[in-house]
Amino acid sequence: MSTPDLNLLVTLDVLLAEGSVAGAARRLRLSPSAMSRALARLRETTGDPLLVRAGRGLVATPRALELRERVNQLVQEAEAVLRPAEALDLRALVRTFTLRTSEGFVETFGPGLLERAGREAPGVRLRFMQKADKESASLRDGTVDLETGVIGNTTGPEVRVQALFRDRFVGVVRTGHPLCRGEMTAARYAAGRHVVVSRRGADRGPIDEALKPLGLEREVGTVVGGFATALALARASDLIASVPERHTEGLRAGMHSFGLPMPAPEITVSLLWHPRLDGDLAHRWLRRCVRDVCGAFTPPDCA
């Protein structure tokens, strides 16, 4: 069975409203002959004459009268679907958004984001997921609405990206650690035992590359998969953790942080989402909330 031409619904709606081929033609800006051909197609499709001659005019058949209200409703609903979205009523919005973020993001920016969302859209729930990799599959399949992180080679080419902030690495030690006192030099920093963060288990990275021109090399005590684990170990030992400053502000509370004593690479933390959500008004609002919360946050300066 062939698929019916749904454009005929608009034609039928106007014909039934006007009760005249000429009137319907004027309304749809068609010639009377084109409207007559459309009526012929409608009669063939529905198996009913729909409009029949009565004197000099046309009258609707019982089938046409039966369809009139239903057809008008279908056309109005179709127009509503194709119409640009109207203003979003945040107070009436009920929706759950899933955000995939790296360690430290929720602890640092979560409270501000939850406060903002709860104040503006009390019916919205935010679900946070840990980001274990940089794959874009969860954005594609819709299990994740929004993601934060550093762009990688595995980020899908279709993914929308917007920079949130620049971040620098800082050194972190427990309160009372020997590095809390005296001048911080690259030699003192490198001489300590370090906890390295690497999801892939690598014991060398950009910080080690920054030490090479100085003829220095870190002593790696252990390698872990996340910032929270690295900071927990540094908090309970003499290990030195090197982590992104803004991203881990909430995790570093009560510890001693210091700027790295040599030039070190910065990173750009970005917002990522799938293009199908570009025009979604609620998603646009959420993206704006994240941008505002991250932009308003200012970490204290490290010594």
Question: Can you offer a commentary on this structure?
Answer:
The structure is a single chain. The chain is 37% helix and 22% strand. The chain starts with 6 loop residues before the first helix and ends in a 7-residue tail after the last helix. The chain is rod-shaped and about 105 Å long. The protein has helices at 7-18, 21-28, 32-46, 62-82, 105-120, 137-140, 186-191, 206-211, 227-235, 281-296; strands at residues 51-54, 57-60, 95-101, 124-130, 146-149, 160-167, 169-173, 193-197, 219-224, 240-244, 256-259, 267-273. The strands form three sheets. The protein has a five-stranded mixed β-sheet with strand order 4-3-5-12-6, with helices on one face. Helix 1 (7-18) packs across helix 4 (62-82), helix 2 (21-28) packs across helix 3 (32-46) and helix 5 packs across helix 10 (281-296).
Overall 3D form: rod-shaped
Helix fraction bin: 25-40%
Sketch the topology as an H/E string, one letter per element: HHHEEHEHEHEEEHEHEHEEEH
- Rounded mean pLDDT is 88
Q: Based on DSSP secondary structure assignment, what is the total number of beta strands?
A: 12
Q: How does the major sheet shape up? A: 5 strands, mixed
Q: Could you name the key traits of this structure?
A:
303 residues, alpha/beta, 5-stranded mixed beta sheet, disordered C terminus
